[in-house]
Structure prediction request, 689 residues.
Amino acid sequence: MIDNLDYPVQLLQPDGARVCRTEYDRLIADLGPTEYISLYRDMVISRRIDTAAVALQRQGEIGLWAPLLGQEAAQVGSARALKPDDFAFVSYREHAVAYCRGVPPEVLTHMWRGCSHSAWDPNQFNVTNPAIVVGSQGLHATGYALGAHLDGAEIATIAYFGDGATSQGDIAEALGFAASFRAGVVFFCQNNQWAISEPVSLQSRTPISHRADGYGIPSFRVDGNDVLAVLAVTRAALAHAREGSGPTFIEAITCRMGPHTTSDDPSRYRSDTDMAEWRRRDPITRMRAFLERRGILDETADAEISTAAEDVAARLRHATLETPDPPPSTLFEHVYTGPHPLIEHEREQHREYLASFDDQEAMS
Amino acid sequence: MTVVNLVTALNTGLRRSLERDRRVVILGEDVGRLGGVFRVTDALQKDFGENRVMDMPLAESGIVGTAFGLALRGYRPVCEIQFDGFVYPAFDQIVSQVAKIHYRTEGRVRAPITIRIPSGGGIGAVEHHSESPEAYFAHTAGLRVVYPSNPADGYHMIRQSIECDDPVVFLEPKRRYWDAAEVDLDAEPSLPLHSARVVRQGSDATVVAYGSMVATALEAADIADDEGHHLEVIDLRSLSPIDFDTVDNSVRRTGRLVVVHEAPMFLGLGAEIAAHAAQHCFYDLKAPVLRVTGFDIPYPPAKLEQFHLPDADRILDTLDRVLTP
Ligand SMILES: Cc1ncc(C[n+]2csc(CCOP(=O)(O)OP(=O)(O)O)c2C)c(N)n1
Prediction:
């Protein structure tokens, strides 16, 4: 499928062979065995987080989950390009981005379990809570970048969204605004081929990255299953943003190999044979093959990574099972920053109402 | 009679409309091959083709705005908005364009568009999947707003909405999608689109509800019955216009009124109904009109929705206050 499109930036072939492309190689020239292992490790752990969460959903411990299976390289490669002060605007599938930003895996299921709308403080990790309304975060990233620009801060923002999101007005408006104001935003589109049941061809007749041209925004098309290529182009785009040269658009070509969410049934819209080619392009197998070719991944490192992944999965699982339901009084908290008579009234009424059940129990 | 759930009833109603009028077209995200995320449009694309049942790019403003253009060309589009919380990107098209065209053109142009929106909570979803946007639309002149509560009404009302020459915002109680009941698929509708229905007769108090709350009100009425209070339950069915005659007649007999909805109370439909009762049934009322509603908060996380959504207990608690002489 991918081979029919314009040739994207690729540094690793599906069999792990290294492709040399001078202009991109120099962007990752600092990487050595330790960094390679660490990228691989983050991808393995991200996948393990994902499978653990899917299992928790199947067991009824969380209501829903949006699997990232197949998108590990796109997310890890781009997130690892960020500096701590950069700010990431994510949607509901960017579990690996959150993980790479330092969000503790233990909290990743909070929202999906229905315990809260947010699981972490966005300002602590410089990554937003998941945006559910598709495309809305593109504008937020633009505004944030504009603010940073006004403050004279040398940071970049990155907005993650899918191929489907590029049809939303919000993304089109974000591209326009960012271009007009030369806002330091990296628009990172994970073209994972599907918006629920809709193929990317329904969203765009041209390669998605071409959309950026119309706004005067430079763009990259990158093999999204190649963690080195993604890291390289994202580094370039972020540097461009940080130095005040304006927005960049990255289309990472990848595939969402699982269902859209745990309540989706992909057999209705795609066949298993469709997926065979993508399985061959699996981002983790590819990086592993690269490491093995270079003799970097010895048994000790491999075992350490497996153990670390199992440990994260166990922690996630345990934390999810242990998360208590929020008390009913939480309903009325944080609606406003200060007192509000209507809320106070309803809070009090609800407290009395719940207490009346206790009284009844006491009487019987 | 056939036993069907609400999803199947709507699907069958859409199918009949597609069969009956070639100008009816369905458009939305995932409505084709997938049959919609709730399967309301299941198999319709297979049977009617891609020109009648169209998967649209992921853009709600685009979907409704395109439907508006199709309507100007003589089509009768039925839009599916995937979830209540995603109708807001289309809000401008609905309230500024679709709602106003007949007025603006002094009756020369019509927009017979049906906008289906699975609405409300109670299914344990994440944010933006459980909203009750009805008041925004009912507040907008030019739109008709309806909200069936059961399979039979779903089947008939979707067809009536599509046949209506005004734009109709068609809300579907997603938490009742899988409730089944007997429906006569060959019968003509027993009520006009905008009539309310007395679903249970009683003499002590009137409970007005709509959408998912009708079943909850009936549950409360069953319990009240055991306690010797006979409630009359009205399913409003239409939120704009509201069939006030049916409500007033009931309130005049029972002298007591409780309005139930899951949307927040402040400036919700209940406020309109209470104001109407105060104005038109003042001398028949034996107690103040009370409302049982969701709280005035953003829709809470799933683990808290059981406290936010009115249940039979909360309705009964409020009835206690209305029935106490
Ligand atoms: C405004 C809006 N409309 C509809 C939805 C329902 N929905 C959730 S995800 C999705 C598909 C998104 O596809 P894409 O942007 O390609 O991202 P992906 O899920 O593939 O990562 C849809 C239609 C939504 N969340 N927001």
Summary: The CA atoms of residues 85 and 128 of chain B lie 4 Å apart.
